[in-house]
Amino acid sequence: MSLAGRAGCALLVTALAACGGSADPAPRDTPPCGSALPYRGALPLHAALPDSTWPLGDDGAWLRTLVPTALANDLAAQLQAVLRETGAPGATVAVGVPGQGLWTQTQGLARNAPAAAVDDNSLFWWASVGKAYTAGLVQQAAQRGRLRLDEPISRWWPQFPEARHITINHLLNHTSGVRSFNSGEFETQLPAGMYHSPDTIIHTVQASTNLFCPGAYWSYSNTGYVMLGRALELSEQTPYAQLMQRHVFDPLGLQHSRVIEPGVATPGLVVSHPGNLPKDDPAQATPFAAGGIAARADDVLRFWHAWLTGGLLPTTTARSSFDALYPMFDGTRSYYGQGVMVTEWTDEQGRARRWLAHLGGAPGANAVVAYDPFLKAYVAVAINSDVSAVATARTLLQTLETWRKQQALE
User: E-assigned strands of 257-364?
Assistant: First the structure.
């Protein structure tokens, strides 16, 4: 069966696109507001996640072992098939099975014209998956007393619309009403394809009205995560990239992870391919804390395992990030918490499925990291083209499930 024909492949296409640049809804409950408001969106919040959703806590020792050879061969063959069928230049992927081990490969081309192959040091852009990293830094800073989740952004931007009522938590879960800087209305002031500094983005958006009163609705805002990155820098008096290295990369031993910085070379960074054509993009540093991570898939999988099992944050803090899950887009069965996503679908066998995840997408780049409670497995995929990382991740996990069934018969 072709990749395009697999069940669930099209799920969250809208969400992926929005992670790279969502269209803002029409203004509702137009500010001034006077206060934050309770959520009043058309769709309800997600119900509390059952205990069976969460991975068992472990020390991650299995991440230092390899999956059985037969499974590794099946996964490698499937990845080759995905690249062949879709025409994607390259991909970095990882599948982690607690108790059995880790499989990871980076295959294909870093650039397709002129052709340049990837290698073990190639880093892929994870786009909005980087928001989960930023959220982790924010939670850590809150634990150190550098900021509070209920703190208003007036501490840093007193002139921003509704600054006294928008909190760090509103920015984390996209309920601030702050417009996303990459929505169409800012294309003249912040043209695509050019680098724009965090302060330029914030000051440009500050001159516009907010979409709605904080808390009332949900709307994906890259600006909000740029503001979180600057709030961290101002609170800690340390650049965002250094904070990420000090509090995430180094403690977790992530040696193939970098923050993309303006004017700083990112060794091994592959080229994005919008429309399957290579494009050297000077604006990759623009998303900043909204999506500036370059990494290999095994590093991203290790990060996600640490997030969910207490290696990055206390387990209670990590789980609380999923307490209030806002419906992201009508009909997609996708929800957003504090820098985390939950996606749900029905598979070919009619089984209800769920991922604890974060997705990322931009022209010429797609990414996802997820934990699958049904299979009790982790997956991370980044592709340097518009090919769906979600579909690829589903295909790899389907390969894992098939292998398990074969093992049970032997």
Answer: 257-259, 293-295, 326-327, 334-336, 341-346, 352-362
Rounded distance between C-alpha atoms, residue 153 and residue 170, angstroms = 10
Residue whose token pair is 């604890």: 356
Residue-wise pLDDT tens digits, 108-121: 999 999 999 999 99
Beta bridge pairs of residue 95: 103, 379
**341 lies in some domain:** no
- Distance, in Å, from the CA atom of 85 to the CA atom of 17, rounded to the nearest integer, reads 22
- Structural domain for 314, as ranges: 3-25+41-326+348-409
CATH code: domain of residue 108: 3.40.710.10
Instruction: Check pLDDT > 80 for residue 12.
Output: no
343 lies in some domain: no
Q: Name residue 393's amino acid.
A: A
Q: Label residue 320 exposed, middle or buried (CB < 10 Å: 0-12, 13-18, 19+).
A: middle
**Residue 289 per-residue DSSP state:** G
The answer to the question of residue 260 being in a domain is: yes
pLDDT, tens digit (0-9, with 9 covering 90-100), for 283-338: 899 999 999 999 999 999 999 999 999 999 999 999 999 999 999 987 789 999 99
Q: Domains in the chain: how many in total?
A: 1
Indicate the DSSP class of residue 136: H
